[in-house]
Write a structure and sequence with these properties.
The complex is a heterodimer of chains A (213) and B (186). By secondary structure, chain A is mainly alpha-helical. Chain A contains 9 helices and 5 strands, in the order αααβαββαβαβααα. In chain A, the strands form 2 sheets. A 3-stranded parallel beta sheet of chain A has the order 3-4-5. In chain A, strands 1-2 form a two-stranded parallel ribbon. In chain A, strand 1 (55-58), helix 4 (69-73) and strand 2 form a beta-alpha-beta unit. Chain A is globular and about 60 Å long. The chains are: A mainly alpha (213), B alpha+beta (186). Chains A and B meet through helix 5 and helix 9 of A and helix 4 of B.
Chain lengths: 213, 186
């Protein structure tokens, strides 16, 4: 292949960022997310153990399920015992808890926060609304399946699930991380166009960069 | 309260005044009298507070019903003023000069029901819905299930149970049979 062709293909692989103005386009990156390969076997195993034992959750309550996070963090259920701590910004956190139903207005912020989180990152979807829409399955402004918009690692079913079941969900998440099965971030990078198409299908006024990094 | 209603009756054409509770009254007025009645109630009747402005879609009559809920702090009485307006190309006079906060209600009604309030501040901005291009969703001819199936991805295998039958079958098998409805004590 000639160098010209390679340049052309590289140019096509760049994101268009068509929702931004010309001035804003210079401020944001137009690179795609890339899948991250695991390191060698034993090192990756050690890293996975370390990741599983220090989960930092993003303190962003996206639906009514966020009310379950308060007792979880405070003295009654005390999630700090498990090495899980809430963090204020997406940049510092590794677990995103989708707390119940997500409206269109929220999914825009969810996508943006999820993409800003640094890898490795995991998603826990809480409540039946995130699984199949729950009681909002016929609502005009609530999405039905969260896994068409961002990758999900663990579902916690219930309406609402109690903090105990959320702790069980965290346990399962830890198991999966230690087994090296939580590859949501890579799935997102590999099927990036599919996720982006789904997101853009419902978010009509797309005014943010295509990949918020 | 009776005096205020009597005064209102003398000045404007008022239909079926209704007393729901001691502190809750309803009146129906004509569309053309709205501003006059509301101004009178605010400045002479003592109803200084607009609690809410809400709409009901009466699709059978091709009308929207607007309800202005007013509150009198001295008498501690709520008075709801109902107005019927045409449903087709619905338009209503803005009351943001009487109560400044009414612009927010009017903006919501514009978005959710498509009732226009010309001259109301920021009435064309989106209130809750972002980038909405369909029919206003609170209108009753907007099929929300159809829109949801069309737009969002349904997960197959969803089933629904009638709660009454389901509970009878699953949990309270002896509920119907027992003479005291299953309760042992009291």
């Amino acid at each position: 292949m000639k160098k010209k062709d390679i340049n052309k293909i590289e140019q096509e692989m760049k994101l268009a960022n068509s929702g931004l103005s010309e001035k804003e386009k210079t401020l944001f990156s137009n690179a795609r997310p890339a899948p991250v390969k695991p390191l060698n076997k034993y090192l990756e195993k050690f890293l996975n153990w370390a990741r599983a034992e220090s989960l930092w959750i993003l303190g962003y309550g996206t639906g009514c399920g966020a009310i379950e996070l308060r007792p979880l963090m405070t003295s009654r259920f005390d999630i700090f015992r498990y090495g899980i701590a809430p963090r204020p910004t997406p940049r510092q956190s590794s677990v995103f808890i989708i707390g119940g139903y997500a409206s269109l207005k929220t999914i825009k912020r969810i996508v943006r926060s999820y993409e800003q989180m640094q890898g490795p990152k995991f998603v826990i979807a809480l409540g039946s609304c995130t699984i199949n829409g729950g009681m909002y399955y016929d609502s005009y402004y609530t999405i039905n399946r969260i896994d068409h918009y961002i990758p999900v690692d663990i579902y916690v079913a219930g309406c609402m699930p109690r903090p105990e079941s959320l702790i069980a969900g965290f346990d399962k998440l830890k198991e999966n991380i230690k087994a090296g099965e939580c590859d949501g971030m890579n799935r997102y990078a590999e099927n990036f166009d599919w996720y982006k198409n789904n997101q853009k299908k419902i978010i009509k006024d797309w005014d943010m960069p295509d990949y918020n990094w | 309260m009776e005096e205020i209603l009597k005064e209102l009756k003398q000045r404007f054409s008022i239909k079926d005044p209704e007393k729901k509770r001691d502190d809750l009254h309803f009146v129906k007025i004509e569309k053309k009298d709205t501003i006059a009645v509301l101004t009178y109630l605010k400045h002479y009747g003592g109803f200084t507070h607009l609690a809410f402005l809400q709409a009901v879609d009466r699709i059978e009559d091709e009308k929207f019903q607007l309800t202005y809920m007013l509150y009198n702090y001295k008498l501690k009485i709520n008075l709801a003023v109902k107005v019927l307006i045409e449903r087709y190309q619905a338009e209503m006079t803005s009351i943001h000069k009487l109560w400044a906060h009414a612009w927010q209600y009017q903006r919501e009604l514009k978005e959710m029901f498509g009732i226009n309030f010309p001259g109301s501040p920021r009435v064309d901005e989106s209130f809750v819905l972002e980038g909405w291009s369909e029919k206003p969703p609170m209108r009753r001819d907007f099929d929300t299930l159809e829109y949801s199936t069309k737009t969002y991805y349904q997960r197959p295998g969803r089933s629904t149970n009638d709660p009454k039958k389901y509970m009878k079958k699953k949990l309270y098998k002896n509920f119907a049979k027992s003479p005291d409805n299953g309760r042992k004590n009291g």
